[in-house]
Structures are given as structure tokens and as C-alpha cells.
Specification:
This protein is an alpha/beta fold. The protein is 40% helix and 19% strand. Strands 1, 2, 3, 4, 5, 6, 7, 8 and 9 form a nine-stranded mixed β-sheet that branches. Strand 3, helix 1 (44-47) and strand 4 form a beta-alpha-beta unit. Helix 3 crosses helix 4, helix 4 (108-117) packs across helix 10 and helix 5 crosses helix 9 (190-202).
């Protein structure tokens, strides 16, 4: 695989990304929480002749760093227009006109914001384990509720607070054993817990406007693909029941997977509907 690494230095952020594939079409890729811009490189053998992929390290992940990383900026949060402007500027720098978006879990908030804000630039909208459709009551409380976010801040700065909260969420069924295992890996150290707090807090404004999303996808005839894991209790297929029927020609794919589904079956299934 011929993959290269780059930085796009923007007033908001020094954005690190990977470029792979050599196709004429462009795919902007947004990974899941705790992952990185290489998450979708498994698609290169399948779709690398059709697409050129740009896989970004998202905010508070790996080598991407805000130019102002202060707690004040994190608490103010990221506006949808700011994210739109970042990627308009990126596309201008790379001479990209039209592009598709591919996202997994947390990354679906990024892809959905672009679909809402600049649908005229988007050819395909592909979301996997779409947290954008239903982020969950606990996440919404900790990120968007003022009291909940203050609680998250205190938990993130404590040694065992977030670990105890995670165990409580499993006890009451908010996350299953697999979800608990995934999240536990991501909050095992102070640095990881702080990143979790920063990520949840900074991105809280990227809340899906369902009316706008449906209108954008339909008005621009954007090919829309929703991918779920049959055994994913965090983002089960049922969360799409209200929105997918409203989107013209939307495709739903259900894989025999849990939440960790970016594997060969995912690549094969996506290839079948894109090529």
C-alpha cells in the first residue's frame, strides 16, 4: 500500500492525516473514538483504484493538535460552521471539489455535520455504527448538560471516578460487556481520561439536526449508506428506523458483528454497494 502522511496547518488546528489509494473519487474518512486516521486503510485493496482516501486523526487523537488547546477553548466547544470552514479550506488546499464521507461511531458526528452544512459538495454519505443518530443518554448528559459536563470534568481528573462510572453503566445496562471492554481501554490512564473529557466537551455542538440532514441528503440526491452490527448494543440497527425511511434510496447494511466491525466483512459489504 502506498500511504503517505501529511499535516494541514489551519488557524483552528494542525490536522494530521493519511492519504492512500489512487482513484479519481475522493473519500474523507473519520474514525471512531480512540482510533486514528489509518482505521480505514483496509479498504485500499478493495477500493483503492476507485477512490483516493484521506484519513484524518480527529481532535484529541494521535498527532492532530488544536492551535489553542486551553481548557477555555475546549469548554467553549466547536461550532458546526467552524468544522465546515476547516474542511472547505482543506479541500481548497488539496484542489478537491466533490467528495464522499465515510465515518465510524464518533466520527459520524463529523461526517453528518458536513452533510448538513455543505451537501452540495458531497457525493456519498456512509456512516457505520452511527453515534450521530443516537449518542446515548449518558453521553448526552455528560457532554451537553452543564451539570453533567462538570461531573465529567471532575471524574476525568480523578483516579477512579470514570472507571467507577463505567462499571455502574454496565451494571444498569447502559453498556454491554463488549462496550465496557472498549471504553475501559480508552480511560485507563489520566491522559486518556482527559482526552475523553476534551473530546466529549469540544464536540458537544455537533448534534444532528435530523430535519436538515434529511433535506440535505434528499435535495442533493446523495447516496446514503447506513452500516450496523447486528450485535452492537451501543448503536443497534433500530436507531435508524425513524430516519432511514425518509431518505431517498438509502441503503442499510447489517453485519454479523458487535461494535468493533471495521474488518474484512465490512470492506467487502461496502465494496459491493459502491462498485
Amino acid at each position: 500500500m502506498n500511504m503517505t502522511e501529511h499535516f494541514f496547518n489551519h488557524p483552528l488546528v494542525n490536522l494530521h492525516y493519511y492519504k492512500f489509494g489512487q482513484g479519481d473519487k475522493v473519500m474523507l474518512c473519520f474514525h471512531g473514538y480512540g482510533m486514528h486516521g489509518k482505521q480505514f486503510t483496509l479498504l485500499e485493496p478493495y477500493l483503492g483504484n476507485e477512490y483516493t482516501f484521506y484519513g484524518f486523526d480527529l481532535f484529541f487523537h494521535k498527532q492532530t493538535v488544536l492551535n489553542n488547546n486551553s481548557i477555555e477553548v475546549i469548554k467553549r466547544g466547536l461550532r458546526k460552521a467552524e468544522l465546515k470552514d476547516l474542511f472547505i479550506d482543506f479541500c481548497k488546499d488539496q484542489s478537491i471539489n466533490k467528495f464522499s464521507v465515510l465515518a465510524y461511531s464518533m466520527g459520524t458526528h463529523y461526517a453528518t455535520t458536513l452533510a448538513e452544512q455543505i451537501p452540495e459538495r458531497i457525493e456519498e454519505y456512509i456512516v457505520t455504527a452511527p453515534a450521530c443518530l443516537k449518542p446515548g443518554a449518558v453521553v448526552a448528559f455528560l457532554s451537553r448538560n452543564k451539570l453533567g459536563n462538570k461531573l465529567l470534568e471532575k471524574l476525568a481528573l480523578s483516579d477512579k471516578g470514570m472507571l467507577n462510572l463505567l462499571n455502574l453503566c454496565r451494571k444498569f445496562g447502559f453498556v454491554d460487556d463488549k462496550g465496557h471492554e472498549i471504553l475501559h481501554r480508552e480511560i485507563a490512564t489520566y491522559e486518556l481520561r482527559y482526552s475523553f473529557y476534551a473530546c466529549a466537551t469540544f464536540l458537544r455542538e455537533l448534534k444532528t439536526d435530523f430535519k436538515q440532514l434529511v433535506e440535505s441528503l434528499n435535495d442533493q440526491n446523495i447516496k446514503s449508506i447506513f452500516i450496523f452490527g447486528k450485535r452492537d448494543s451501543m448503536y443497534p440497527p433500530s436507531i435508524a428506523n425513524k430516519i432511514v425511511p425518509k431518505i431517498k434510496g438509502a441503503t442499510t447494511i447489517i453485519l454479523d458483528e458487535n461494535h468493533e466491525m471495521i474488518k474484512s466483512d465490512f470492506a467487502k459489504a461496502l465494496t459491493e454497494v459502491l462498485v
